[in-house]
Amino acid sequence: MSTVSLSLSLSHTHTHTHTHARALSLSLSSVSRSSLTAEMQPDESADGNAKSDKVAAKDATLLRTKRSKPTLTEFTRGARNIDASRGESSDERKTHGLLLDGQKLRSEVRWNRDDGKVSNSRQDEPKLISTTFALAGDSAHNHAVVYWTGHNSSVILILTKLYDFHLGSVTESSLWRSRDYGTTYERLNDKVGVKTVLSYLYVCPTNKRKIMVLTDPEFESSVLISSDEGASYQKYRLGFYVLSLLFHPEKEDWILAYSHDQKLYSSFDFGRKWQLVHERVTPNRFYWCVSGLDKEADLVHIEAHTPDGHCQYMTCRAQACLESARTFPFPGYIEPNSLVVQDNYIVVQVTMAGRAAYYVSYQREPFVLIKIPKYSLPKDMHILSTDQGQVFAAVQEWNQNDTYNLYISDQRGVFFTLALENVKTSRGLGGNSMIDLYEVAGIKGMLIANRKVENQVKTYITYNKGRDWRMLQAPSKDLEGNDIHCVLPFCSLHLQLQMSENPYLSGSITTKSSVPGVIVATGNIGSELSYNNVGMFVSSDAGNTWRHIFEEEHNVWFLDEGGALLAVAQPAAPVRHLWISFDEGRQWTRHSFSAMPLYVDGVLVEPGSESQVLTFFGHFSDRSEWQLIKIDYKSLFTKQCTEGDYQTWHLHNQGEPCVMGQKQIYMKRRPGNYCMLGRESSRILSAEPCICRAHDFECDYGYERRGAGTCLAAFWFNPATVSASCSHGQNYLNSTGYRKVVANNCTKGVKEMYLARKQVCPERPPRGLQLGTREGKLTANLGSNVTFVVQLEEGDSLRTNIQLDFGDGTAVSYSNLSWTEDGIKHVYRSAGIFRVSALAENSLGYDSTSLYLHVTCPVEHVQLLAPFVVIKNKEVNLTAVVWPSHCRTLTYFWWLGNSTEPVITLEGSIPHVFSAEGMNTVTVQVSSANSILQDTKTIAVQEFFKSLLLSFSPNLDEANPDIPEWRQDVGRVIKKALLQIADVPTEQLLVAVFPGIPTAAELFLLPSKNQSEGRKRSEEDLEQISEVLIIALNQNLVEFELKPGSRVIVYITQLTLAPLVDSIPRHSSSAMLMLLSVVFLGLAVFLIYKFKRKIPWINIYAEVNHEKEQEMLGTVGQSDATPKITLSEFSTPKEMMEKELDARLKREQSSFTPPTLFDH
C-alpha cells in the first residue's frame, strides 16, 4: 500500500492516476469514432538550455492511495485580495525579477523537547545559507504551479497565473525557470509567446527532460513542447480543449488526452499529433494498460456511454480503436463513474433490482460478483487501495450517513470481511467525502483511523491490517515536563488524519518510508477528537509511545531522506523562523530564513539525493510579488554517515515483536548524529518469520468475531453450503471460519488449525436456483436481445441439466450449467407479459424458479375518441386508440373533468357519466416502458340538444390536409357563416368537422344558457333554429371563402339523428326512433356491401373510408400522404343520402365519437 494518508476524496472508486488540467463538472454524451486524426503543425519555437527531471516528490501519485505531493497541483494565495484590474505594464513584466542579497542565517535558539527548556545556541552553530528572489511583475497573479523537474536536477519551473473569478478563466500568465536550484529565475514569456496565456504545465514521469505546457483555451488551443527541460519550446495547434492528460507508465511519448466534449485522444509523439480514440468517455475513467497483465502496450480501458445513455466498460488499442477491434470484458451495462482499473483488479458497479452490486476481475479473469456481508446493503462503495495483494474498500451501508465501514478482501478481491466500523468522514473543499484513514509509510499492515463510537470520534491504530485495533496511549509528559494523567480507555491521544488541500503543505499527519516508525501528527489529548486546543505529537516507535513537540499546529517535512525534520508554523500569520530536528523531534533548533516575515504558501523540499536544498514560496503582503527563498541546509551536517552512525530498531506492537507474522529489525541513524544520509538509508536488517498464532488470522467471509475472540457463522450464512462449481470427484476448501491475513508471513503454529481444509465435493441436488436478466430489469423492448442469467447456489453445475422456457412457445435445454456462463439470449417477436421459467435437475432432485418479463413496444400515437356533446347523467364510453395496436403492456391514466387524481386502467376504454352541464375536459395518458403519450378532448354536457349532418362542395376536399388544426379552423369558419344566416347566440352553435375525406361535419344546436322561460320554450327555440338553418342550407345560402376565388357551399345531409336528444325518460318516442334508425342503418350497410361492386361511386367511397378509419385510429397528427378524393361534379341528392348512410354507420361503429372538438 501507499505511504501516505487515505484521507481521499471519495467519488466512486476514485483511484485514477490522471494528471488533471481542469476541475470541471462534465456531462457525458458521445458516439464512438476512431477514424478522426487531429494533427498539429509547429507554430513557433524557443531556445534555451538546462536539464530535466520529475514533477513531484518520490511517494506521489495523483488520486490513488499514495498521498504525497500530487503530480500536478497548484496553490492559491488565499490571503491576498485579488484585484483583477490591477497589473503592471508590459515593459515591467519583461524584467527577470530581483535577486536579494544572499544571507547566512544563524540558528538562534535550541529547544530540548525532553526537558522543555530553550537554550541559547552555540557561537559556532552551523548556519543556513539563504537567497531570496522576487518574481517581479507577477504581484497580481493569484495561482502558481511549482516543479522541481526531478532528482539531482537543478532546474525549477514555475507557472504563475492570474485567475479571474468573475470570468472563470486565466487572463495572464508567466513562466519562470531556474537552473541553479532556485537562486535565480529567468522569465520565459518571450520564448513561449508574449501574448500566450498558459494554463497548465506537465512533466513526463518517465523522462523528466520532456515538458508540456498547455495554453488557455479561452485564447487559443495549443500545446508547447520541450525536450530540454524547459529551455526551449515548440508550439503545436490543438483541435480540441484538453481537460486532463494521462501519461503511459512506461512509454515516454505516449499520452492520453481528455477533451471538454468528453472525447478521448491519443498521441504517440509526445503531443505533436493526436488521433481520436473514443467519444462519450466518462471523465477520469480511462486507464493505460497494466504491465504484465494486458498483452498490448497501447491497450486502454475505457468507461464510455452508448448513444441511448447506458454505460459500458470497453477496451481497445489506442492506435486503432476501431469498432470491430473493441472488446467488452464485462457483459452488460455498468453504473456511470464506477470503472476502476488498478493493479490486479478491475471493479465495476451495476444496479440489480434497485440495489448496488459490484463485480471484480482478478488478473483479467472473468468478472465475478463481489461478496460483501449479506445485509450490508451498500449505498456507496469506494476502492481505497489494491497494492498489497488485496482490496481495501470503504462501504457506506444502508443505515449510515456520515460514516463508512472499512472492508478488506481476500487475494482475489471477491470475499470481503469487516475490518472497522463507522470510520469518520468529512467534506473536502470540493465537496467530496474524505475518509479518516491513514496508511503508515514503511510499515506493512499499519493503519490509523478515526472511528465514531457513541457520538464521539476516537483514534485507533492497527498493526495487522485491521484484524485488531486499539486506541493510542497519550504522552506521559507535556512540553513543560509535567505529568499527563490520561488513562485508557477513558482518555487517549487523538490525531487529525486529513491530507492538505495545498500540495506544498504537509497536512495534519506525516510519515516517510525511509524512516519507518516515525510519525508526526496534529492532535489532542482527551476523551475524543477535537479541533480546539490541538498540538503537535511525534512517535519514534511506530505509534507505541508519543511525545508532545509543539503547542500549536505546524507543517512538518522530512529532510535528507528522513534524516532530519523541518517544522514551520501554520501559515495563518507571517513567519521568519523554521525549526529543524536531527533526533526525531526530541530536540529542535530554530533558524531564521527570511529578513521579513513571510506568508508561507508552500515549501518544496529535496530535489535530489545529492543536494540539500529547500525552497519557500510566499509573499510579504497582499500586494507584493511572489517571493522564492532558497535555503541550503548542507552546512548543518558535519560529515557523510558511515556504518557507525546507525543503530538497530525493532518494530513491535506494545512489546509484541511479531508484527504481520515476522520479527523485523531496521537500521536507522542514531538520533542526534549530524551526519548526512544523502540517500534512502533505512532498510530492514532482518525479517524472521514467527510461529502462527490466533492474531495472524482474521474471520473468513460469512463469519463474525464474537466476544471471546472466536469467529462464528453469521445468522445469514450457511457454513455447509458448497459452491455449485464444485463437481463430484473434485476437491474444495472448506473454511474453518478463519483466513490468514493477506501478506502475513507467519509459519507453522496454529496455521493448520485455522486454514481451510481440503474435502471431496459431495453429490447433492440443485438448490437455490436463481433466474434474472443481465441488466437486472424485468422489462425489454420488442425485438431486442434479452440475456437471461441462470445461477445455482448449491448443486453440481457440471452434472445438472438446465431447461429454460421463454414463455412465448420456445424453450432451450443445456446439459450442464457451464454452457450458460455467458448468458442465454432470446428475442421476443410480440409484446406482452411472459412467464419465463427455469428448471435445474439431476439424479438427486430438482429446483425451479420463474420470473415475469414485460416485453413492451413504444407507443407512437394515441388518440382519444369521445363524443363532442353528451347528455347529462347518461353513461358514455371514452376510448383511447394507440398505434401500434399490438402493444399489450400499456397503462392508461384518465383525468376526467377537474379531478386531481387519475383513474388508472389496463384497458383502453372507460365508461363515464357527466353529472354537470358545461364544458368538460378529458385527458388520457398512455404509459409504455419509459414513454408516456397523451391526448385531450373537450366535451359539452347538456340536458338535450339537436344536431344536423353537414356536407360540402367538392373543392373543400382538395384543400383538406386532414389534420386537427385545419379541422378546427374550418369549423370556426362554418360557424361564422351560419351565424350570418341565423340570428343565434354564438354559444348555442357547435361545429365539429370529422377526420377523413370526403369532408363531413356535424352541427350541434345547444339550448340557451338562460332557461328561465322553461324547458318547453327552449325546445321550441331549437326547433325554430333548426328549421331556419335547414331552409338556408337547402337553398345553398351558407357558404364561405376558402381562398380568393374558391368558395365552399355547405349542404345539409337529409338523414339526421332523432329530432331532439333528451335526458328525460319520458321521451320514449325519441329512443324508439333512435333504435329504428340503427336498424335501418344496418340494413342499408348490408345492401351497400352486397351490391357495392355494381355501384362505382360507392366502391370508391368504401375504399377511401377504409383509409380514413385507419388514419383516425392511428394518430392525432396526420401525414400529408393521406388519400384524398375529389368529386368531378356536385353530389346529387341520392348520392348525398348514400354518403349520409355511410357516415352514420361509422359513427355508430365508433360509439358516436368524432375525434375533434372546436372551441367557441
UniProtKB/TrEMBL annotation:
Composition bias type Basic and acidic residues, residue spans: 83-95
Region (Disordered): 35-99
Membrane topology of the entry: Single-pass type I membrane protein
Gene Ontology CC terms, in alphabetical order: membrane
Residues of the PKD domain: 793-849
Entry annotated with the keyword Signal: yes
Keyword line: Glycoprotein, Membrane, Repeat, Signal, Transmembrane, Transmembrane helix
UniProt KW Metal-binding keyword: no
A Pfam entry, by short name: Sortilin-Vps10
Transmembrane segments: 1071-1089
Subcellular location: Membrane
Annotated family: Belongs to the VPS10-related sortilin family. SORCS subfamily.
Matching PANTHER family: SORTILIN RELATED, VPS10 DOMAIN-CONTAINING RECEPTOR SORCS3
Record's protein name: PKD domain-containing protein
Annotated source species: Electrophorus electricus
